[in-house]
Amino acid sequence: MPKTALLIVDMQRDYFPGGRMALEGTDAAAAQAAKLMAHFRAQGWPVLHVQHIMARSPAPFFEAGTEGAEIHPSLAPQDGETLIVKAFPNSFRETGLKAALDALGIERLVIAGAMSHMCIDATTRAAGDLGYTCLVADDACATLALSHGGVDVPAAQVHATMMAGLTSYATVAPADAVLAHLA
Predict the structure, then answer these.
(1) pTM score, two decimals?
(2) Distance between CA atoms of 120 and 3, rounded to whole angstroms?
(3) Phi, psi for residue 140 in degrees, rounded to 5
């Protein structure tokens, strides 16, 4: 079986209810990500966390030094787990993520987090381009409604569109199906 790691992307306080950029379904997505995290920890498999810190200040969200930029307590890293800090949607861009994965001998990534249409999309595509086999736990990801050209797109549609698009880069399935696939 390929060496597998869990990558939890940007599950930070600002994306939760009451945060500066609250997403739809973040609590439910966090519960599924926590289920994945508990399984990986029980197996002794690597769990890596990604934290987005905005490069500018003031920032609309994820501002350095604010509570909103902190990883949500339900998904907080434990001692020995890797924390990657990034400033771009792609978790590999200008970070040590690839080096950390390579040092662990990782070949396959299970990806969860936020936002589906930004950092999950960019990170999954980059991981695929770098040769990692990817599984995206779609119910462990969250996003928000968007508008373009006078068309309002509900969060559920944004999420479904992004997950559908990622199927060329990853196996996209609910967390329980991902866990069954790893068994």
Answers:
(1) 0.96
(2) 21
(3) -110, 20
